[in-house]
Write a structure and sequence with these properties.
elongated, alpha/beta, eight-stranded mixed beta barrel, 443 residues, 21 helices, TIM Barrel, 10 strands
Length: 443
Amino acid sequence: MSSKYIVRQPIKDRDSTVIGYELLYHGENQAFGGDTSVAEEGSVAGAPTAASSGTSTSNDFAAANAIYNFLTLNTDKALAGTLNFMTFTPTLLMKKAPRLFKQSELVIQIDDNVIIHPLAMHFIRQFIKEGYQIAVNEFQFAPRYLSLIGEIHYIKLNFATAPVPTLTNVIELAHSMGKRCIATNITSSELYDCAVKLHADALEGPFVAEKLSSKAHAVGYLQSNFFRLMVAVTRDEPDIDEIEQMVSQDASLVLGLLRMANSVYFSSMHRSTTIRQAIMTLGLGQLRQWIYLLSASNAENEIDPSSEEFLKLSFQRANFCSDLVEYIRDSLSISKGDAYLLGMFSTLGYLVDAPMEEILTEVPVADEVKNALLHQEGTAGKLYALLLSYERADWDQISALANELHIPTNLLTSLYFDSVDRANITWARITAPDDVPQPDEEA
């Protein structure tokens, strides 16, 4: 079965604040031409070089069409409102694919095969005139790169392969000309520290995606009102009286609950004016879905602001896992609710300064979920491994795990970006200014 995968990975500044996302994409089999080898990150299999054959060019057009069609359907959803870094092949440039994005939401990344392609560079210069930003992947001290430096905005440097003296020289040159440098392929703390020491403006890679500058203290966080409420609403038979009492003891909980219940999303003929009315308006399902984000963003021991990425990631993972469960042939081994909690609690290890084993003793989840999070065991463990593989753009592992779980690979990208979109919407509602209607306003 032909498949295409598109995933986004965060790019963060030195304070671990997300400045944008890189879109990585990969295609195989008929959808992306005959080349079934793994594509480079941010590129497509069969991308042409200066000496491309007619077959390679045909493959590239097939790849470009698949990517173009996906972007046409998704740029106004999960990709809107963020700064997206995306590598464009010559064919995608000539299809004018960048124009699917607003100028404020796109950085056009180019590889060497674009720099040596005269027609592609004509399009690049046209996009620059239209206000788009440009980044060059793996910048080199070569005439064709240096001639571009006046026109580009970002220089991306592979810290896993380039020697430190070269990195130092490029960064100094870039900064002297007002350009920003992004350190890529940061896979370890050593590479991270090196990038910071050399004054890279931003960083990306597996280590960066999982790094948080500080965590909440375990004792205060796990005993906070928000976390105790989260535990209460995840029980098999939640006690409404207990939940109401917990909420009533914390003004921020009351505000958050009433804000959600009286938002446009839950609008009804009757305004919720009491805690119990608000709980019944939301329903335990919605409360269970949102309480983790509320707990993490409002815990008594304040979490570092850079944790926002992980808070949204938890909700995104929860939606992704619960959606994927519907396609697993052996679906009886993990329920939709357990899959949701698997994704939601998978980020606790990043947010709380305690071992995951200790954290999970405080959370009433099924043993299957605990074993999946701790050891990636069972069907739930394979689902969790698939989630992590997709986020890391491990193309081979994605296909292998999806096939083991009998999940159609052609659905993964759409389900993934749907979960991103839903997470963004939920986060926006939770963090929106207080807009609870007044008594004389319509709910």
